[in-house]
Amino acid sequence: MQSIRRVVVNSIDDIHVEAVEAPQPAAGEVLVRSTIVGICGSDMHAAHGRHPFMSLPFWPGHEVIGVVTGTGQAADGSLVGRRVVVEPNLACGHCDQCLAGRYNICATLDVFGCQTPGGMTDAFVIAADRIVPLPDDLEDDWAALIEPLSTPVHAVRRAGDLTGRRVVVIGAGPIGLFTAIAALDAGAERVVVADLLESKRERAVRLGAHGAFDSSAPDAAELAQAELGGKAHVVFDCVSRESTVALAIEVLDKGGSLMTVGVPAGKTLVDLDLVQDRELTIIGNLMYVREDVLHAIEILRKHPFPFDEVVTATFGLDEADKAFHASDDPEQVKVLVRVAEPA
């Protein structure tokens, strides 16, 4: 029996590499050799036992790049040898949401690497329709950013036409930074980022934000308006805590939109009186669909920012525990786990 390595997370203090039997693709599946995998904020929340929709133990790896090495029956054999990114939404395909093309909110949605074993392993199998071939001019390390960029691209698309709009992004972690990048790509007139840490605010500006402010400051709303030159048309809340929701509502202009992107820790109080009085719109955002993935690929093909500003550490698969602990450092942005060298 051939065995492969696979990372299992029992808790933040119990992360190790286990040996499991090498998988074989069933009908409609492909076999993928992993090359590089990103660690997501959701992975960290789950490792700490704080994710509302993930339980321990889990087998991570939904931000995964690899090479197709085999196919099962009815899968396209020409995929063998192709570099691919995984689209990890595992949808039923026949509920109302799936039939409407919104399979990211499938009635029975699971996520590869969250509710099922993922790609932080030497090899894995997945349905052939869950992989997207990569263009030759997008290197694996850059491609590892497709999945985390796709959620911000989805949220920005759902916010409507941002051309000439004033935008606030709350949170300068990976999702917040990518949301700012996606908003700039969508034509926002001014994008301002809020965060507690000065170093993260400075990084947001280096990545293209027009300004930044301390979200914990007593006069945060006034600081936001000063940086924006007025109230915000759209706020992307990539933190989703009671304090950030209150800040978002305070900085929004009448008729504005609050895009909830971060995963809330639980029930959150909302100033509903202000939502009603100002005709604000609150929109939830979960993951993405294929068009968002394809647009994320096109953004990254431009290499629109200094790579080292976003990918701040890389570890080998056997150092997965170190990679997770590095991701706990707020000064890190995106930590990658290199499983194998690119083809």
Automatic annotation (TrEMBL):
GO terms for molecular function: oxidoreductase activity; zinc ion binding. The keyword Ion transport does not apply. InterPro entries: ADH-like_C, ADH-like_N, ADH_Zn_CS, ER, GroES-like_sf, NAD(P)-bd_dom_sf, Zn_alcohol_dh. Transmembrane segments: none annotated. Its cofactor is Zn(2+). Keywords: Metal-binding, Oxidoreductase, Zinc. It comes from the Bacteria. Residues 10-337 form the Enoyl reductase (ER) domain. The keyword rRNA processing does not apply. Belongs to the zinc-containing alcohol dehydrogenase family. This is 2-desacetyl-2-hydroxyethyl bacteriochlorophyllide A dehydrogenase. It comes from Leifsonia aquatica.
